[in-house]
Specification:
This protein is α/β, with parallel strands linked by helices. It is about 50% helix and about 15% strand. The chain contains 8 helices and 7 strands; from the N terminus they run βαβαβαβαβααβααβ. It has a 7-stranded parallel beta sheet, sandwiched between helices. The two termini are about 30 Å apart.
Length: about 240
């Protein structure tokens, strides 16, 4: 296992983010769980992990607001002295016909799923570049790769995140900072709770492995990307073969 690191996970109180936070803390890393609205859930996770003496802090910040992101990164540095890994997991989704998407829908989607990563990465780089070391992992989506009908604004934001990943990897490579992206398929989380049983079965029929993913499938890849020192600029598809 790699040496213990200081890791910030945005949107870490639910779904994929929650699993990432718990597993990385159990590996011995110092983890900061970012949340916005789910304060009670964040506190519960912190309490659970601290019972076993794992190192975790929680910090409320709306990642769509630059000042709050800046304060979050400063908290990380003040608390642990550095930031080794940034995991951009916070995001929202919405199913809506393209012709019905409003200006507000579009701006909210882009701001939450893409611009927030611009903010977090820029603020984290103030410290990573000086250290000549860092790992950035962006959580995208299968729809950012192949596009999703009735999720055009979501697909556009997640595709933008993949483009940002590639460009940043080239720019930050000389500073020994790796930037990668994970594009999950359908994962069993609250984000997909709107799908009924028949929807799930229909999707399973399209997936070669004939099952939907679990948050731990994504966390497994996150662990590897943190440990590996020679992978950068990649978008790793974890979707059971759905996009083959």
């Amino acid at each position: 296992m790699t040496e213990n690191k200081v890791i910030l996970v945005t949107g870490g109180s639910r779904g994929i983010g929650e699993n990432i936070v718990k597993e990385l803390a159990k590996q011995g890393h110092k983890v900061i769980l970012n949340y916005n609205k789910s304060e009670e859930k964040a506190k519960k996770i912190k309490k659970e992990l601290e019972i076993d003496n794992y190192q975790i802090e929680i910090f409320r910040a709306d990642v769509t607001k630059r000042e709050e992101v800046s304060n979050m990164i400063k908290f990380c540095i003040k608390t642990f002295g550095k930031i080794d890994v940034l995991i951009n997991n916070a995001g929202i989704s919405q199913i809506k016909m393209f012709t019905d998407i409003t200006n507000e829908d579009w701006e909210n989607m882009i701001q939450t799923n893409l611009t927030s990563c611009f903010y977090t990465i820029q603020e984290a780089l103030k410290y990573m570049i000086n250290e000549k070391n860092g790992c950035i992992i962006n959580i995208s989506s299968i729809w950012g790769t192949i596009g999703g009908s009735c999720e055009v604004h979501y697909s556009a934001a997640k595709a933008g995140l993949q483009g940002m990943t590639k460009a940043l990897a080239k720019e930050l490579g000389p500073s020994n900072i790796r930037v990668n992206c994970i594009a999950p398929g359908i994962i069993d989380t609250d984000m997909n709770s709107k799908l009924n049983e028949q929807d799930i079965e229909n999707i399973k029929e399209e997936i070669p492995l004939e099952k939907i993913g679990k948050p731990e499938n994504i966390t497994c890849c996150v662990k590897w990307l943190i440990e590996d020192e020679y992978t950068t600029g990649q978008t790793i598809q974890i979707n059971g073969g759905w996009a083959v």
